[in-house]
């Protein structure tokens, strides 16, 4: 509802002035709206979008037509037309944002993503597990291995530094190479992922005309007229509602102060639990690596599952917003966005290819990204700065900070001592609490430093640029070869056409033997060359046609010309065909790798 009282659910506290422009108690129950027949599955995404927009616009008009004017007049009719023009534009924006298949309607509440979000949520949980299982566990295991080679009473500063350096190397591998490679292959697989809807679409700018629904019917007024709110008041209400939406979206995207300690606290609980065991094998490097990977990775799964599932649930993933016909409706705050809207989304049935194909492709993509860090002096400098500063130094600082915080906070449990006292068990209360505290601070420091330093996307950009240049080079080779092939193909076709009648008569007059015509293999070669000439003319040459020409050229030439070896022109033709085949094959291979489909 625009320009009226903004009712909300229990999680919001939006209020408006006393000028109420929609009152649920005085509006009759929503009736079933007759809309034009819309195809269940239009041929293309654009057609489905057009059909969805037309359907919602028809619902708007049917809804307004069912309501009489409170004070009929030509001015009211003109104002309604102005309002509908504004509402039509908002409908277009919402269909574009949600997609034609999300089920957006003019009046009723939207359905949540529900089970459609299961695969995207599972993918996000996998990403979170890998990210968590690669950083701290590697650092803990490396630190344990380093400490095992030193005296029991040795200082722990160097141990924390070694652990931080190892954790930085692991975080560089996951954040810069592995996770980006996974995301790139997920885009190729057309995996849908949650994307926040622009608050300006959910709560649009105030309309030029305010729609008021009363017991007498509908009434249109301009902002500031009579008792209607002014445009400034409407903008203030709009700002407040958008701010509430932004805060909810930021929370579910883990970018809010409300979730600052969510993952660190969950992680601390899991890590503290693993330190309650008294088995000495749990403290070996292998035990530290395995258990901490399960604990930290498992905490990441729990945290990501909570947030991502919240996006797909009505209570947390929806809010009440204007429905464009004087009331309010619940709309989703997130939409499942597809990388390629013209293709079907990835589904659970595709998971059968996950182990052999997705993992292999991800490994290849990660190696390709890694190579981009060493293909120039500038790339090497960027890689070194990213590894040494963004990851290693940040993790060392996080290790120092968390170790100091853990000792200070747990000192009262050890009688004021900042280190373990003599005879203290490996799973004592102080040890468990210190592990939890260090985990909270380590995660918090690392997240803060990572947000401050940003992400390194230069290797991905370099890889995209390299592939774009390679694709352009393939295309240039194809165009040049096609241009060079035109004349040799015409000459070969003329040679294989056999003697003309005039040529036979001239040979007989001169007492010479006429050149024999091509045999069956020669005719097949000529047919293949004519097909190739046609495709060259249309600039759509297929590899199958080139293979047919090359095969016929090799098999038929000697028989056609009675053992005469191929001349230079024929050899050049064969070489150009081989060049074209390689260029087409490489171009198609690159296209399939980038698009994921033949």
From TrEMBL:
Going by the entry's taxonomy, the superkingdom of the source organism is recorded as Bacteria
Q: What is the lineage of its organism?
A: Bacteria, Pseudomonadati, Pseudomonadota, Gammaproteobacteria, Lysobacterales
Q: What's the protein here called?
A: Type III effector
Native organism:
Xanthomonas phaseoli pv. syngonii LMG 9055
């Amino acid at each position: 509802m625009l320009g009226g009282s903004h009712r909300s659910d229990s999680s919001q506290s939006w209020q408006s002035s006393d000028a109420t422009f929609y009152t649920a108690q005085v509006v009759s129950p929503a009736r079933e709206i007759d809309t034009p027949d819309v195809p269940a599955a239009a041929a293309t995404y654009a057609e489905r979008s057009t059909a969805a927009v037309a359907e919602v616009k028809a619902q708007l008009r049917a809804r307004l037509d069912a309501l009489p004017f409170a004070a009929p007049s030509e001015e009211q009719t003109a104002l309604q037309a102005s309002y509908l023009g504004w509402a039509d534009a908002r409908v277009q924006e919402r269909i574009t944002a949600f997609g034609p298949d999300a089920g957006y309607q003019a009046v009723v509440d939207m359905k949540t993503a529900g089970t459609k979000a299961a695969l995207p949520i599972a993918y996000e949980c996998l990403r979170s597990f890998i990210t968590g299982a690669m950083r701290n566990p590697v650092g803990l295991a490396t630190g344990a291995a380093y400490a095992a080679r030193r005296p029991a009473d040795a200082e722990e500063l160097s141990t924390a530094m070694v652990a931080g350096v190892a954790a930085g190397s692991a975080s560089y591998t996951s954040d810069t190479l592995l996770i980006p490679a996974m995301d790139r292959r997920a885009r190729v697989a057309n995996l849908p992922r949650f994307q926040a809807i622009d608050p300006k679409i959910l709560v649009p700018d105030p309309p030029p005309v305010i729609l008021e629904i009363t017991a007498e019917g509908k009434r249109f007024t301009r902002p500031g007229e009579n008792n209607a709110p002014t445009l400034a008041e409407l903008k203030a209400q709009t700002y407040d509602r958008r701010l509430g939406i932004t805060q909810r979206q930021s929370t579910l995207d883990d970018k809010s102060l409300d979730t600052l300690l969510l993952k660190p606290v969950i992680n601390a609980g899991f890590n503290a639990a693993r330190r309650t065991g008294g088995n000495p094998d749990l403290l070996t490097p292998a035990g530290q690596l395995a258990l901490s990977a399960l604990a930290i990775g498992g905490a990441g799964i729990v945290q990501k599952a909570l947030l991502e599932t919240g996006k797909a649930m009505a209570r947390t993933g929806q809010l009440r917003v204007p429905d464009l016909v004087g009331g309010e409706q619940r709309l989703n705050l997130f939409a499942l966005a597809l990388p390629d809207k013209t293709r079907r989304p990835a589904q659970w049935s595709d998971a059968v290819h996950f182990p052999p194909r997705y993992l292999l492709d991800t490994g290849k993509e990660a190696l390709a990204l890694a190579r981009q860090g060493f293909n120039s002096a500038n790339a090497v400098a960027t890689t070194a700065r990213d590894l040494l500063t963004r990851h290693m130094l940040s993790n060392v600082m996080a290790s120092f900070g968390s170790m100091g915080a853990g000792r200070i906070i747990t000192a009262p449990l050890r009688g004021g001592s900042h280190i373990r006292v003599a005879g203290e068990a490996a799973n004592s209360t102080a040890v468990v609490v210190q592990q939890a505290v260090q985990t909270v601070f380590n995660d918090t420091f690392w997240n803060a430093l990572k947000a401050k330093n940003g992400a390194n996307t230069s290797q991905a950009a370099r890889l995209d640029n390299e592939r774009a240049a390679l694709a352009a080079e393939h295309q240039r080779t194809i165009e040049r070869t096609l241009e060079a092939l035109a004349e040799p193909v015409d000459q070969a076709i003329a040679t294989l056409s056999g003697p003309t009648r005039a040529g036979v008569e001239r040979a007989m007059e001169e007492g010479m033997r006429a050149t024999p015509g091509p045999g069956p293999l020669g005719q097949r070669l000529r047919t293949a060359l004519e097909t190739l000439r046609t495709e060259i003319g249309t600039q759509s040459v297929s590899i199958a046609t080139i293979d047919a020409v090359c095969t016929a050229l090799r098999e038929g030439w000697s028989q056609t010309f009675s053992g005469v070896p191929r001349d230079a022109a024929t050899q050049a033709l064969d070489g150009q065909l081989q060049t074209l085949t390689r260029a087409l094959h490489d171009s198609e291979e690159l296209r399939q790798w980038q698009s994921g489909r033949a």
